[in-house]
């Protein structure tokens, strides 16, 4: 599991700092240096990701939004009203209302590890849907979460948009899918976004845009290390690289050394030779079959699949 260290234990306050330090140091000691992608999302990184979603080259957000906009009646028919919608990671303020408007749920339960984002998203939703009970839960959804008392007994719909599942290697993704099943309980369904395999040139452009926003997003991780962990990484001598790994059907982001370098992080010394990289993200892409296989391995049965008009992105409905 190259770039997903598991120091995610206690993620409040100091716990976050400790987990970041532990993941970065462990990752920099590996032969192929690698840092878990979740650390890309500090305040600056989250803002940069928002900017990425508006780039011409970055199609996934627009493609998924197109599906959610165009297929509301079909979601309603397949999913039905009266479910508690449990969103795993409540960042997306645009996509969620599209789903909620379509299916007439009984409650909305956003789960997020970042309490401030969570409350903002919950307030926003509660304002948009005055009759809908909203029960935010601050939790790490990689572990089984106890849903609020008020939604116990309701059938659930898990919502996991954005192809975030693609950031995980299959073994981690399968574990998460099983954990989601445990969280959601009996009589649950799952609506999950999965980005599709396509021309590597299109993929590489989506992760290495002409304006350099994705490069900034990636380099921000090195800046964050310098800021928060007393680092001396020479950020200007690192280069953003996005490359398609065809064996594993994934886009990889790396930070590549333009020259031999030595630097310190949290009092420890590290070096990179010219051309050597720090692996910072995987973004797996799926075929119809590989998506179904992953869901089945995670104990979900796919029942319906939607794609955008360009066949770039899929939303899959599965049943427990
Ligand atoms: C937020 C995980 C969906 O993998 O496409 C965008 C993150 N990284 N550009 C993705 C990302 C570089 C994004 N996800």
Quick rundown:
This protein is α/β, with parallel strands linked by helices. The chain is 36% helix and 24% strand. It has helices at residues 14-28, 43-53, 60-70, 72-79, 95-103, 115-128, 170-184, 200-206, 213-228, 288-297; strands at residues 33-34, 84-88, 107-112, 137-138, 156-160, 188-195, 238-245, 250-257, 261-265, 268-272, 277-284, 301-307, 313-319.
- The helicity comes to 25-40%
Number of helices: 10
What small molecules are bound in this structure?
Answer: N,N,N-trimethyl-histidine
Outline type? globular
Number of strands: 13
Keywords:
single chain, alpha/beta, seven-stranded mixed beta sheet, 24% strand, binds N,N,N-trimethyl-histidine
Task: Please characterize this protein's 3D structure.
This protein has 320 residues and is α/β, with parallel strands linked by helices. The protein is 36% helix and 24% strand. It has helices at residues 14-28, 43-53, 60-70, 72-79, 95-103, 115-128, 170-184, 200-206, 213-228, 288-297, and strands at residues 33-34, 84-88, 107-112, 137-138, 156-160, 188-195, 238-245, 250-257, 261-265, 268-272, 277-284, 301-307, 313-319. Strands 4-3-2-5-6-13-12 form a seven-stranded mixed sheet, sandwiched between helices. Helix 2 (43-53) packs antiparallel against helix 9 and helix 4 packs across helix 5. The longest helix has 16 residues, at 213-228. The structure holds N,N,N-trimethyl-histidine. The site of N,N,N-trimethyl-histidine (AVJ) has 11 residues, from strand 11.
